[in-house]
Amino acid sequence: MLLVEGLQAITGQSYTNLVHERIVAALGLSKTRVVETLADLAPLAPGPSESLALAGGPVDARDHYHPDWVSHRLIASTPSDLARLLLSLFRGDLVGRDSLRAMTLPVSAPGGPPVWRKPSYGLGLMGDPSSPWGSVWGHGGAGPGYSACALHLSSSRGGALAACALCSTEQQTLPWDLLFELFDGLGKRIDSEG
């Protein structure tokens, strides 16, 4: 919240304009935007949520969760745009090498997904530099109706992959689990192809 306020004061631009100009337009993220009103939520996939229901079952978060309730702001996107954002970040298209190094300097953070060997946090990224698949960095989160996880995987062979999974919070499936299954499947395929 303080960063948003500071950026707006320094640049004289709104947060929405800054995100659009410096990230969305610069990286070609055609389905990503700052969400400011309930009307801005309408084009999103339905997000059923028990946590917003007063009585009688889930309600659609798009009709009940006002973006102003989130002090650090909401940004809506698609899995493909989030994966593209992570690839661009790690390619150096968004921040300089020193900043990226700081974002991936692992500081031990207990918890994290059970398969992670060294759950860590950098500046704004969570990850595991020693995961079963290699160095993994990204972030996940949840709110009423939705849960998401976007991860960037750097393989020991020099390749890179970014993927994102979005799930309903009312289902038992977690986006982490979907991405880990993807990484497992890709690892087996790579190993079998040599």
Which key features would you list for this structure?
single chain, 2 domains, disordered C terminus, alpha+beta, 194 residues, 7 helices
Distance between the termini: 47 Å
Number of domains: 2
Strand content: 15-25%
What average pLDDT do the residues reach?
A: 87
The level of helicity is 25-40%
User: Number of DSSP strands?
Assistant: 10
Number of helices: 7
How much is the radius of gyration in Å?
A: 18 Å
User: What structural category characterises the helix and strand content?
Assistant: alpha+beta
Describe the largest sheet: 6 strands, antiparallel
Strand order of the largest sheet: 5-6-7-8-9-10
Q: What gross morphology would you assign? A: globular
**Order of helix and strand elements from N to C terminus:** HHEHEEHEHHEEEEEEH
Unreliable stretches: 190-194
Describe the structure.
The protein has helices at 2-11, 15-27, 38-41, 61-64, 79-91, 97-103, 175-193, and strands at 33-35, 48-49, 59-60, 74-76, 107-108, 120-121, 126-131, 134-143, 146-154, 160-168. With 194 residues, it is α+β, with helices and mostly antiparallel strands. It folds into two domains: 1-76, no CATH class; 78-194, no CATH class. A hairpin with a 5-residue loop joins strand 9 and strand 10. The longest helix has 19 residues, at 175-193. It is globular. The N and C termini lie far apart (47 Å). 26% of the residues are buried. Mean pLDDT is 87; it is low at 190-194.
